[in-house]
TrEMBL record:
Official protein name in the record: Cytochrome C
One Pfam family linked to the record: Cytochrome_CBB3
Domain Cytochrome c per the UniProt entry, residue ranges: 65-148
Phylogenetic lineage: Bacteria, Pseudomonadati, Bacteroidota, Flavobacteriia, Flavobacteriales
Native organism: Polaribacter butkevichii
Keywords assigned by UniProt, alphabetized: Heme, Iron, Metal-binding
Family matches, as PANTHER family: LIPOPROTEIN-RELATED, QUINOL:CYTOCHROME C OXIDOREDUCTASE MEMBRANE PROTEIN
The keyword Metal-binding is assigned to this record: yes
Length: 151
């Protein structure tokens, strides 16, 4: 079984693949992966942040289920820095690992800007786009907005 030891390399983007059939590994422009959502194409710039603030709105209905999952995701990804109440007094802030974590109440933010920061990060905060799904990000946004209203 020499094929097991010496595999035949194929150029996945080449004109011919296995058995001479054409290969097209690139998705068609404008398509959305199954179960996916449109690509987030606002740039990681101040202009992109401002555009998100003025154009993005939460597509999810405000339900107890969405809020509960938003809290669960917040507890996993956000609470260590932003704190239980969103006051910027999380464990990492208390242990002086990071300073200057903002209080949600003191910020001019809305659903669009919160989502943009989750996607791209801001200042010391890194992006959380790869750790969360589209729906989870919007659920976190709902929960953060709830925290803001309680501060």
């Amino acid at each position: 079984m020499p094929d097991m030891y010496v595999s035949v390399p194929y150029d996945v983007n080449g004109a011919n693949g296995i058995n001479g059939e054409p290969v097209n590994s690139k998705p068609v422009a404008g398509t959305i992966p199954r179960g996916g959502h449109p690509a987030y194409d606002l740039p990681d710039t101040n202009e992109g942040y401002e555009l998100a603030k003025t154009t993005l709105t939460n597509p999810l209905e405000a339900t107890e289920e969405n809020l509960a999952n938003g809290k669960a995701m917040y507890d996993i990804y956000c609470i260590s820095c932003h704190g239980k109440k969103g006051d910027g007094n999380g464990v990492l802030s208390q242990r002086e690992k990071f300073s200057g974590i903002p209080n949600y109440k003191d910020r001019d933010i809305n659903a669009g800007s919160i989502y943009h920061v989750i996607m791209h990060g801001k200042n010391l905060m890194g992006s959380h786009a790869s750790q969360t799904t589209y729906t989870e990000r919007w659920q976190i946004v709902q929960y953060v907005e709830k925290l803001r209203s309680e501060l």
